[in-house]
Amino acid sequence: MNSVAIIGGGITGLTAAFRLKQRGVRVTVFEAGPRVGGVIQSVCSDGYLAEFGPNSILETSPRISELIRDLKLESRRMYSDPRAEKRFIVRGGKPVLVPGSPLDFLTADLFSWRAKAHLMAEPFISRSGADEEESLEQFVLRRLGREFLDYAINPFVAGVYAGDPARLSVKHAFPKLHALEQKYGSLIRGQFLGARARKKSGEVSKQSAKKISFDGGLQVLIDALANELAGNVQLQSPVQELEQTESGWRVHASGTAETFDAVLLAAPAHKLASFKISSHNPISLASFGDIKYPPVTSVVFGFRRSDVEHSLDGFGVLVPEVEKLNILGAIFSSSLFPHRAPKDHVTVTVYLGGSRSPELVNADRSTIRRLALKDLAKLLGTKGEPTFEHYTTFRQAIPQYEIGYGRYKSMMDEIETQSPGLYFAGHYRDGISLSDSIVSGDGAASRIAGFVEKGSAQESLIV
Length: 463
Ligand SMILES: Cc1cc2nc3c(=O)[nH]c(=O)nc-3n(C[C@H](O)[C@H](O)[C@H](O)COP(=O)(O)OP(=O)(O)OC[C@H]3O[C@@H](n4cnc5c(N)ncnc54)[C@H](O)[C@@H]3O)c2cc1C
Prior knowledge:
The chain is of the alpha/beta class and 463 residues long. It is built from 15 helices and 21 strands.
């Protein structure tokens, strides 16, 4: 029977392992920690259902609904409350509604008339050269102007990447944006014209994709995958060394070693950087250590409803850097998925740190609490003591696809071609979101299944 080792039991590794097991491949997931799920962790406590890591999945690809269907989780899937579609961005120290449609944009308070006029001119701005690699900041300044950068892109990037638009590569961090310009010559034109192509492929744009979770939070997805993989997961088994042999890949974990036909590397890039790999073609992943992963602290606060002035009628609020607040943004978690806080209570999840304030990773809890509550009081009119609070620090949270990231992607493509049986997937390869990670794990499983099934077909011909 074909055998595959999956290194890393986050959503990427678990998805790949489940898909391979379905195809009759013997899989072993090596997970360094005491639990699977990676950064996903939903916890029920004191009447709250809190997400300590990610909050929701964007249903951008049919592969996500297929995974949910195959895990028999359709009846447990929850779509975010339609009333939580509204988003706010801070301007002048206050949350201001983000326009939801082109018509709303014209009357919105968030942007000046100058910024609106700049946006209208976007279809007439020529595209950049296909080979030029621009930062997101350069791209936005060229096409949309400074105000759009400061009050739309900067807070959006803080919310998604916890990153810096001046360093992120538009081509690698926002490949669809880059492709719209290259293909249609304009983002606005591309939004309309690209809709037909997306419909044909079954893909949904991130702006219009539905946000999903489950009745017990994202943990339900992890538990279902772990259940399907019972007996295939080795916890507290950090892998540090791989060795290519005549018959496959020898995986060294916690003092033991076993040979597999193929290996999928689904641990974070900063962990892979220290892997010792001996192979027929020399491989070093040391340069992965240069990929930046800024820290993020998430704080889940519960409040009495009567202690919050803001109606919390939306997804959340994002903070532009120019507003000089402490937090990157806040999600109105109990509005997004109702019934996650006790009666007459609400939940707000706050994020701090990122590329903007990486030093906060070393701040003590009382400092983080003070900074977060100060901003919430200013933005949402919170008062009194929170009724629930939980702090999680991700010391290396999200990989930054900065200018030059293409060299890591090319390196992975090259290794997969030149060292048969070694594969890469996850947030450092195919995009940083949960939906990207699921699609990445699913895609890796198809590539690996093709490889191992071809190997066993050749073996049976020889026999
Ligand atoms: C605070 C935060 C909020 C987020 N919010 C959202 C959101 O709301 N929506 C969204 O779409 N995305 C969100 N993301 C991004 C998304 O959650 C991640 O990109 C995604 O979960 C990555 O999954 P993964 O399996 O690739 O990696 P991970 O979840 O990092 O899993 C990797 C696993 O590998 C294990 N490992 C590490 N080293 C080794 C080793 N040597 N041997 C074996 N195992 C090893 C780790 O212990 C871990 O379990 C968020 C991320 C963070 C940090």
